[in-house]
Write a structure and sequence with these properties.
It is built from 19 helices and 25 strands. By secondary structure, it is of the alpha+beta class. Among the domains are: 191 residues, no CATH class; 231 residues, Thrombin, subunit H (Beta Barrel). The strands form five sheets. The protein has a seven-stranded antiparallel beta sheet. A hairpin with a 2-residue loop joins strand 1 and strand 2. Helix 14 packs across helix 16. The longest helix is centred in the middle third of the chain and has 23 residues. The two termini are 25 Å apart.
Length: 646
């Protein structure tokens, strides 16, 4: 966040001023800078590294969108300054501050000196402006006021998110500018591994002095674990945190002391009797004898050099494993969401899973109904029903019939497109669960997920697991092969090369989200939720092979991101003139769905789609005349009134 005007040394930099430049000596000239770099990145200490790698990200202002190139050692501001649209809009908003908000959850705002290396390739940033209240502009230069600012070290960077509203006693005293607290819920802070929390927050420059003077702590809302300002940032990577007053910690400490000691603090009131764990000495001896070998193995596997590296690795990994979906709050939320998951049956036989996307429309995989789908008539050739309440083998379930006409259908050989949108038959006596489109979000590259579905045609189940990142897929496959060697006797090298080459295709198949789950047959079409209980994808299949006795096995499984499916649904609804589907979709509009609509609008210029989008809306029986708008106007004129629709 920054101010586009030079006001004082305590205000943020202008778009022409780099983090680390002195506002007193800055003259507002940026013509000498190379594209994608600020004056900081042109510092002689890092000039040689400024252009070694690059990628692009997108930014939007209102409903205009641009793509810019950024460099590994540059900042977000460096990249934005190369855009003429950005330059023009800052000139007309002198005296205001810029808010740069990320697309992925929790949609935190980054500082203008936020390293480009931490922005995902093709990520969308939203740029907006807020007022400066009584000279309270945030100083995003922070510690970069020294004459030789430190160079950006991409390999040591990490991020965490901090709520803009604090706990008791510091609720409105977290951010320098109160307008930022009203604009966004989180700010994204970057830090270097090994440095203290206080250093990272001071560098950020947007936090009020109260945060540092009151010995504030950062609390994890889900676990209640507090991190003090004097602690390293390493264990906070990727976590959402809430600033809390130290009075909370002191109160807890006082309560604990009062239980242990008398009024004068000199004698114990209750003394707990300690009991030795049976065989503890023998167990301890075994663990100690194995420890050295385990450490050596860990050092070799993770390329760790020092004992402190091992300790930090174990600390971070333990933190990852104990999070995900163990919190009661998340479990309760998932149970609520699971009510919208259904089993898909053909002629009464379970074939897959689906979920209520919106209104009365069910989303599942195309391969679930592929054998009974007739593409010429666009109809299902056998009866299909769904049931939302198959949770116990002994209970009767309500079967809801599906209409024979398929709303939208997509199936590609690559597996990146595999969906069918089905419509439930109208019945006023049937009460449907909540639609899941309301909680749609874009997937991240890592983290925990949870799948809800009907594996093996059985009752509804959940399976929490972790995303396998692109670079780790080959290792995951090799691990599976090693652990299941006795079941892989029918596999030969040619099969691997032709079906899913683990050396080339699998790591590069970036369209899919991969993970290791126990869900396989019968779970196709299951919704995939992220750690925030948001719908991000649809579980589809696995990288399979013929195992023992001809049974199909899967090495790792994958899901298709929902965003691409939604784009295709809108395009097919236009081609098939399903105004009812488009109306229901538009009624669900949100910031994330606006991004999907923008992608659809970009595709509408394709030669094969121009005619469909420029056709007039079909006659509406509820009105006295034909709606004269085209599908393009109907869909994208809505964008200007998105505030009215939510």
């Amino acid at each position: 966040m920054t101010s586009p005007s030079n006001t004082s040394n305590n205000q943020q930099q202008t778009p022409d001023q780099s983090p680390g430049a002195d506002a007193k000596t800055h003259q507002g000239k940026s013509s000498g800078n190379q594209p994608g770099t600020s004056r900081q990145s042109q510092n002689p200490h890092i000039k040689k590294e400024a252009h070694d790698e690059s990628h692009s990200f997108r930014y939007r202002f209102g409903y205009q969108q641009r793509r810019v190139i950024c460099y590994t050692h540059g900042t977000v501001l460096d990249a934005l300054r190369t855009s003429e649209m950005f330059k023009n809009m800052t000139k007309t908003r002198q005296g205001m501050e810029i808010v740069i908000q990320r697309e992925k959850e929790p949609r935190a705002a980054v500082s203008t000196h936020f390293p480009c290396h931490l922005i995902d390739n093709e990520e969308l940033l939203t740029v907006s402006f807020i007022r400066v209240l009584n000279g309270s502009s945030s100083d995003t230069r922070g510690l970069y006021k020294q004459s030789n600012p430190p160079k950006i070290q991409p390999d040591k960077l990490m991020t965490f998110c901090v709520e803009t509203e604090g706990g008791q006693n510091i609720k409105t005293k977290v951010m320098k500018n109160a307008e930022l607290r009203k604009k966004v819920k989180y700010v994204c802070v970057y830090g270097y591994k090994g440095e203290k929390v206080k250093q990272a927050l001071r560098r950020d420059g947007r936090f009020d002095k109260t945060v540092f003077k009151t010995r504030c702590v950062l609390s994890e809302p889900e676990t209640g674990v507090d991190t003090e300002m004097s602690q390293p940032v390493d264990g906070l990577d990727g976590k959402p945190l809430s600033p809390q007053s130290p009075t909370t910690t002191d109160t807890v400490k006082t309560q604990l002391q009062s239980k242990e000691a008398g009024k004068d603090g000199s004698s114990l009131v209750v003394k707990q009797k300690k009991q030795e764990i049976p065989n503890s000495k023998e167990i301890l001896s075994i663990l100690r004898s194995q420890y050295a070998g385990l450490v050596d193995h860990l050092k070799e596997r993770e390329n760790l050099k020092k004992p402190s590296d091992v300790q930090q690795f174990l600390r971070v990994e333990f933190g990852k494993k104990t999070q995900s979906f163990q919190e009661v709050k998340k479990v309760k939320k998932l149970m609520e969401l699971s009510a919208s998951v259904c089993q898909v049956r053909i002629e009464g036989t379970p074939k897959g899973t689906g979920f209520l996307l919106f209104k009365k429309f069910i989303l599942t995989n195309a391969h679930v109904v592929h054998q009974i789908y007739e593409p010429i008539t666009n109809k299902l050739q056998q009866s299909v029903t769904v049931t939302f309440d198959f949770e116990d083998l002994g209970e009767r379930t309500q079967q809801i019939p599906v209409q024979s006409e398929v709303v939208a259908y997509g199936k590609g050989d690559s597996g990146n497109l595999d969906f069918a949108l089905l419509e439930l038959s109208s019945d006023p006596d049937i009460t449907l669960p909540s639609s899941l489109l309301d909680i749609f979000s874009f997937p991240s590259l890592e983290g925990g997920i949870c799948i809800v579905g009907h594996p093996e045609g059985g009752v509804k189940k959940t399976d929490p697991c972790f995303i396998i990142q692109h670079g780790d897929r080959k290792q995951a496959v090799e691990k599976h092969v090693t652990e299941n060697e006795e079941f892989l006797h029918v596999i030969n090298n040619r099969y691997f090369e032709e079906k899913w080459d683990i050396d080339t295709r699998l790591p590069r198949d970036t369209e899919k989200i991969t993970y290791d789950t126990c869900f396989f047959h019968g779970a196709s079409g299951s919704p995939v939720f992220n750690e925030y209980c948001q719908l991000i994808a649809m579980h589809t299949a696995g990288y399979s092979y013929q195992g023992k006795r001809g049974k199909t096995q899967s090495v790792i499984e994958y899901a298709i991101p929902l965003s691409g499916i939604l784009e295709e649904i809108i395009i097919q609804a236009v081609r098939r003139k399903r105004v009812d589907v488009l109306q229901e979709f538009l009624s669900q509009r949100s910031m994330k769905l606006d991004v999907v609509m923008e992608r659809v609008e970009a595709q509408s210029d394709n030669a094969s789609l121009v005619k469909a989008f420029q056709e007039k809306l079909p006659f509406n029986s509820n009105s006295s005349a034909t709606d004269q708008r085209t599908f393009h106007q109907f869909l994208f004129d809505k964008a200007t009134g998105v505030d009215a629709t939510g």
